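P.,

For your records, the input lines for the assembly:
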Amino acid sequence: MISDKMSGLVKNSSAIRAMFEEGKIMAAKYGKENVYDFSLGNPSIVPPKEVKQAIFDVLNEEPEMFVHGYMSNAGYDDVRKTVAEYTNKQHGTNFSEKNIVMTVGAAGGLNIALKAVVNPGEEVVVIAPYFGEYDNYISNVDGVEVVISPDTERFSINFDELEQKISAKTRALIINSPNNPTGAVYTEDDIKRLASILEKKQKEFGSVIFLIADEPYRELVFDGIKVPYLTKYYKNTFVGYSFSKSLSLPGERIGYLVIPSEMEDFDAVVGAVSVANRIMGFVNAPSLMQRVIARVIGMTSDISVYEENKNILYKALTEYGFDCVEPKGTFYMFPKSLIPDDKAFCAAAKEFRLILVPGSTFGCPGHFRMAYCVDKQTVLNSLPSFKALAEKFK
Amino acid sequence: MISDKMSGLVKNSSAIRAMFEEGKIMAAKYGKENVYDFSLGNPSIVPPKEVKQAIFDVLNEEPEMFVHGYMSNAGYDDVRKTVAEYTNKQHGTNFSEKNIVMTVGAAGGLNIALKAVVNPGEEVVVIAPYFGEYDNYISNVDGVEVVISPDTERFSINFDELEQKISAKTRALIINSPNNPTGAVYTEDDIKRLASILEKKQKEFGSVIFLIADEPYRELVFDGIKVPYLTKYYKNTFVGYSFSKSLSLPGERIGYLVIPSEMEDFDAVVGAVSVANRIMGFVNAPSLMQRVIARVIGMTSDISVYEENKNILYKALTEYGFDCVEPKGTFYMFPKSLIPDDKAFCAAAKEFRLILVPGSTFGCPGHFRMAYCVDKQTVLNSLPSFKALAEKFK
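Structure tokens returned:
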């Protein structure tokens, strides 16, 4: 009785749920501390204490009809201004509140950007490996997904294939750096090359190609490396941001979309994005949380924990014989599975009480994803299991 | 450069924005207190003080990783259980947490219900006059909207036309009682008649027709009248609820969807709704607000204010010669315009500093909507303007 589009999705979702259920059964059998669950990208560290204080302050200092009421679908003007000014300070950009639309997380932002610009049948390019939800977001607007196969050398972009696959029907390209599932961060050279390809193709086809940057992991980078700010390299760029990871607030659904004034047909696009926010049922980003993030902008949880976990795991796994591109950010790594069949490999890992996600879930078989947003002790305790797993397949 | 679907919407939205801008200009010219703005359905009364206390209590008593973290896409189990038990107590239903999905307001709930069950090209019936956003929600899933013309006698349902227009392609029917824009509340007899038509048509076509009840105004009823609980009359009913109006929290985007166990293919529908919540970009209803509403369930703002405003306006306007079906709930009324052209009428009302919305916006020309969620003094001050407006068209 459910729609055809949803039938397949529900089946797939049940498979993931079955995996969680199995994890729970394993935890009951062996004890929770003896099961090493690297399956979920759920922040493992508390929000900074300033978040709680900011909530109290908003409620004590601001009128409640204002705090809990409707505002423009794009969000509170003053919150948007605060976000714009912070971004300008960080990245040397020149945004005002007009360039910011507050969204229900990055997922809300990506959906309204796609709704605003994609017509049914138009193509949206994604770079494998990629976050599987992009399939659904593109399907929501009846777009046609075009997948660029992985650059398994360093998990950047397979530029030659990208150049071949961009067509007159290409309307948008979604990129995600720092990347889920690989932890890769595109270099400035990568971004320049990408921008020049897009410029060239726009000229060739007389089209507009929107770059949609999904950036919930922007702050989660290691060794102090810089993540280039994309609007500075390519004007038709949407940046989708979320506070889910930087402030450990994934349940609150708070993020924003940046739309540079230089974007083609800027006024119409901003209008379309705001209307899309309304008609897709979001209406506006949650109001209290908008007011809170304006007070804590620029703060983060103690994200150094993720880098520590990465260092332990990367060192150990490469010692044990795993082949892995070292992550430059996020809380994911994406090693090669020790046999070509990544699903069989992840199934075998369960014998060692390791819960890993097959790379084929992300359009990149022969690998597996580990989400190391878990506590350090779990990471340390898991190492003998990884060693035993490696020995099994030697 | 924006998608074709969005182009018309942005134009339409600009027209509404122009109306607000004009209101602002009028306020600047005549003084805010001399402009009577009945255009917006934004609650005018503060949330109960228990809401603020509940936010403090949640933050002080519950672990922050839990309060701000991801939970199941359907919402926290304990919150869903609380909602189910409250509903059972109020309406003699028999729900458990399995029957409740927490949503991003009622707008989020309606969108995921439609996404779950409607295939492209299938028909969704709406009853004029109706909330204009339904057009967009139906368009989001590529459904075909079928409008039943108004019963202007009492703003119930034009049952004969409904019977004629339900076809083999009818997949869903959206109803909204208490109703925006009329303030009508369907009686138990109305609901029984509706249910029997739907049952008959399901049998005739061998189909399943879902009833989607949009109920953000359930508590806003006058004279203590009862609003029938629809799942008790027709099993294939979704109830979409929002706390926006009852608790004056429209900006927080918090509501829920009720899916009775008796619904055809219940497990698949619940699964589809949860997955739709995820893939449409909502992911889950805002987490802190879920936890808050569990603590204040059953409370409301001081909604008696709306009944007082209704009484003043209904008495005065009928005295002045307006023809109006007396509202039984909400904070709207929907009188006949004094000339057939409702747009010209609302334009003329501006001379008297009255901001009214043409009925044609709701699929019912020859009427206008007044949102009397304004303070009582504004209502009282507006009366001479209504009197003068009536005299102009006598």
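Two observations worth noting. The longest strand of chain A covers residues 170-175. Chain A touches chain B through 74 residues (CB under 8 Å).

Regards
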